[in-house]
């Protein structure tokens, strides 16, 4: 819009001497008519300059407001990935949300191709996966921890900002409207319209993002894909010699190829991918192309641990009189 306005002003300035020259040469009153048109525009601008200014500023502050929603969704998605990994860290199972992302590489929330090619969320997912997949880790539980609240994923700072913006808009708009609504048209308060409009849309975009990123919507996606919201897949099932590992590699290759094609298209290059140059591409999903030597030990450990946890029952230890010769020392023995 601003570029179009600049073009209009530019040609309006050029037309002034051009119409004068045409009138002098061809004896047609085109210059006089052009001055009359400029006079009408001047009168309109003089009468409505305030609303023109309000409209211009309103456009400038709200033209990219949708990015508030996209950025909020990206932030919540990134935070939620970390919290889900922490939930499942004491189990032998891969977090369901990571399993879903590995098979269905996540795209940027925005559809802007420039944002799509630079989005690093999938790269982060693969990096987390690489850091964990070839670790022969023990586990102490078969069930994950309780989920963090949606509020924690949103972030207390963002939530406070949202509440402050909503409170200001509601208070300011209500105070003026209840006092004298005509101030929005004739009073100096009308110049606050761009700010009120921005904060109203800001609040709306934030709320839309929060609603889109609720756990209930995530559970529906996981249930539709896996048949349940929290499937228990072992990390071993995502090794490259397993069916899910093979699907992971196919998805990774397809995502890298598509991302590079979009990068080439954005920079006016060939659609055929010859080199992978986009720094936002995810690395190879595994630390090594060779399987670790302790795979059999991992399977045996898992089976033994499952038997131990299945057969273990809580035992009641009777209290004993303390021997006078015993010191006041408690022997903590890790089971």
UniProtKB/TrEMBL annotation:
UniProt keywords (A-Z) are: Membrane, Transmembrane, Transmembrane helix
User: Which superkingdom, per the lineage?
Assistant: Bacteria
Chain ranges passing through the membrane: 37-61, 159-179, 191-210
Protein name as annotated: Uncharacterized protein
* Organism per entry: Cytobacillus firmus DS1
């Amino acid at each position: 819009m601003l570029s179009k306005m600049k073009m209009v002003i530019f040609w309006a300035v050029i037309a002034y001497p051009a119409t004068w020259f045409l009138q002098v040469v061809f004896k047609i009153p085109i210059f006089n008519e052009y001055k009359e048109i400029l006079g009408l525009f001047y009168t309109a601008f003089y009468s409505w300059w305030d609303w023109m200014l309000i409209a211009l500023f309103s456009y400038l502050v709200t033209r990219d407001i949708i990015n508030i929603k996209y950025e909020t969704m990206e932030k919540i998605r990134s935070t939620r990935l970390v919290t889900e990994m922490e939930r499942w860290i004491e189990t032998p199972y891969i977090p369901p949300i990571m399993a879903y992302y590995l098979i269905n590489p996540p795209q940027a929330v925005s559809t802007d191709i420039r944002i799509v090619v630079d989005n690093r969320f999938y790269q982060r997912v693969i990096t987390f996966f690489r850091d964990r997949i070839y670790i022969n880790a023990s586990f102490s539980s078969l069930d994950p921890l309780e989920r963090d609240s949606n509020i924690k994923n949103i972030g207390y700072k963002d939530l406070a900002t949202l509440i402050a913006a909503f409170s200001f808009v509601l208070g300011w708009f209500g105070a003026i409207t209840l006092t004298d609504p005509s101030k929005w048209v004739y009073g100096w308060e009308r110049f606050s319209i761009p700010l009120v409009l921005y904060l109203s849309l800001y609040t709306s975009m934030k709320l839309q993002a929060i609603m889109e990123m609720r756990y209930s919507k995530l559970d529906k996606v996981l249930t539709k894909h896996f048949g349940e919201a929290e499937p228990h897949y072992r990390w071993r099932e995502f090794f490259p010699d397993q069916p899910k590992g093979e699907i992971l590699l196919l998805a990774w290759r397809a995502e890298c190829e598509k991302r590079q094609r979009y990068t080439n298209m954005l920079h006016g290059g060939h659609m055929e991918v010859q080199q992978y140059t986009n720094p936002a591409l995810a690395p190879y999903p595994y630390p090594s192309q060779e399987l670790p030597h302790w795979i059999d030990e991992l399977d045996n450990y898992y089976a033994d641990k499952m038997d131990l946890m299945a057969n273990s029952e809580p035992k009641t230890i009777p209290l004993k009189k303390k021997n006078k010769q015993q010191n006041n020392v408690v022997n903590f023995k890790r089971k």
